[in-house]
């Protein structure tokens, strides 16, 4: 594979500032918006639409903004009006998003007329310069074939890297110390994940960790949401006028520069017929469509898939534990027993059933998406209700039964029950639904069906390793003023309170994970 950097065009500082350019930009936006609006397909008679077009809303920008700001209430309205049938929603997932009730998700979870990458890449702007890492074609096959099969031998490296990262990243907490945990959690997850993807040398390169983390935060944050404020037809133009899009391209080019010497050394190793490492720098050579990927883009894509969601779940779980301090002792006892019995092995992680339950329950109440099941129709087909799904429509299942108490899937659905899924393991036929990595129509934290998150097995192990170290080595609680973190809804995104502060204090661990084999 050619290791030469594959640089992004349009990187650097934006310099388009003249009034004439601005006027031209606005004129083109208007024309394209009118064009797009004129050719938007009719919602059709078969499905009701919950947020119909607004008068003089060319390009539907007001509709998109309204959904972005009031998504939870709009989805509640839709489910209240149509509790057991699908309805149409105008959303960033697609001009016509079919919202399914929970009762229909299993019916379509692996339907051959529904694809994922066909619409997902468009929805996350993979066609825009600087967004190439958001491509998903081939990623799932690689993760299933290589990453998941490597989990057994990754437990010790993940534990070692967690130990080093906590030591080098967190401040001295010999006394109770107030910290804003979110940026630390992001660094910890970034480095530990990169240890699995690219080895210890690259994961300890501070420039690489910085660039991959900054790119992830930037593209998943304001830039992603800002682009969704515009009709799809004008996004290929509007990004050229966004400074943050230029910054994304600059970061991607910097990533190419950082990785280049590593790739050169890897090619030299290959030329000498030496054994090659088993990591993502090699896995990328075996993707089904290698022409669509280069090693840097693949690494950043792995970071996008692994860092943002895992960091969110780590913070969410630590927050829940802080709100329920009675969990510290039983969780620590479980960790001590598991690692004493098995050592730093995958089997020890499998024995962390209470920690698994606490994490899954935390994810149930605050997943990363209000639309936890996402597909795009590649051809027309009919639901059992008689409604027709049209080719090109997005199909989504909401998570209101998880986050807002809808439906009968859970007893006391708005209550945090850390033992909920631990108890479910003993119910006949439900053991495999109760695991963190399990997917079902009842729990869409990792999606469901044949396009469920392929990296969830790695993410679950990584979180358990990090939490095991944190629980044995630290006491924590929420700082004054942060006792009730605020969750916000931005379109389909569910965003935890990034301003939450923790009080952290080092403790003497009962067993030293750093010395176990």
TrEMBL record:
The UniProt record lists the keyword Oxidoreductase: yes
Residues that coordinate or bind heme: 453
Keyword field: Heme, Iron, Metal-binding, Monooxygenase, Oxidoreductase
PROSITE patterns according to UniProt: CYTOCHROME_P450
Names of required cofactors: heme
Any one Gene Ontology molecular-function term assigned to this protein's record: heme binding
Keyword Transferase on entry: no
Pfam families, per the entry: p450 (PF00067)
Record family assignment: Belongs to the cytochrome P450 family.
The protein, known as: Cytochrome P450 monooxygenase
The species this protein was found in: Gnomoniopsis smithogilvyi
